[in-house]
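The authors assume throughout that readers already know how a fold can be written as discrete tokens. In essence, backbone conformation is discretised, so a fold becomes a row of integers matching the chain in length. A single example would do more here than another paragraph of explanation. For illustration, here is how one protein appears when written out as sequence plus structure tokens:

…
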Amino acid sequence: MPRNIIDVTDLTVKEINELIDTAEDIAANPEKYREACRYKQLATLFFEPSTRTRLSFESAMLALGGSVLGFSEANSSSAAKGETVGDTIHTVSCYADIIAMRHPKEGAPYAAAQYTEVPIINAGDGGHNHPTQTLTDLLTIHREKGRLGGFTIGFCGDLKFGRTVHSLVNALCRYEDVNFVLISPLELKLPRYVKEEALKKRGIPYKQTDSLEAVMPDLDILYMTRVQRERFFNEEDYLRLKDSYILTPEKLERAKADLSILHPLPRVNEISVAVDKDPRAAYWKQVKNGKFIRMALILKLLDIQV
């Protein structure tokens, strides 16, 4: 049976640390990996729109010397004709050596994994999980802070539907001395099941607040998220909540000098473009790190040693 990555917890802490080490080596020695996946094919099956994740996977495979096939929206696949996800995956696994799949329905990649003959990577399923974004975030934190513990991280914005937040909380709670601050309006609080499974079950303390300014001086890392229009059933609710938090240079005046600002992107207006010039802004580095960690994961799942 192939090894699939549906949830970040499918990887042990040791495996995550090894992936980070490999990604660091890839960033430092890209030429060493140029032919690692020669003659290998990655299929990117994106039933939901994406820019960074899809192109990051494709760029990663090309940088490893492999090739890419797939589709960027459901309407350009046989799903538009009514084909099941299982049949699509079964078909594509006959052509490719590894699959990256994004789907708007929670659990779809897990269901698809029952039909694949090659490794499948969850590239995001609805508001549930986004394990490779989490690996990207962990690599970025490691490169910015030099460690994966011993800090206070604030998650700000849409914590209810934010699959990147859910995955990262699940990952970081396995490291020591991480303090969690959950910043959101009442309607977009972190789901109870995430708090119960990731935090309360492990006895990890956390703080909930609706005020970013109040906790800003305490944060070592600020993880901003957008309010996701596509997850709302009611347009009025989205319009009321979409500007709940807008990070500006003025709001950063009380922040630590070594704060690291992360964002999974895309952003709408929750981070002012003026913040891009702040040396504490790490989200463009985050984008680059996504390619390196996905290269490392592809190598691991294909069992390729370099």
